[in-house]
Amino acid sequence: MKWYKSNAIKIYEIETDEYVPAKPILREFVIEYNLDISLMYNETQVKNTRQLGREIINKIDEIKK
After folding, report:
1. Which end of the chain has the lower number of beta carbons within 10 A, N or C?
2. Which residue in 13, 24, 30 sits closest to 48, CA to CA?
3. Residue 3: pLDDT above 70?
């Protein structure tokens, strides 16, 4: 994971040898694993990367119990 001045969170992708935005990967993870997590913060705002990541981690912890 790498932090940028814009506060964007990027993840190193081995296959392409590049840093890619984390948010689309997190969204795909929620959809692919059918997690009961909304991608929206409220009716008009999409969750940011940190909010979405936190909820995914919490959901994984909940499933593991």
Report:
1. C
2. 24
3. no
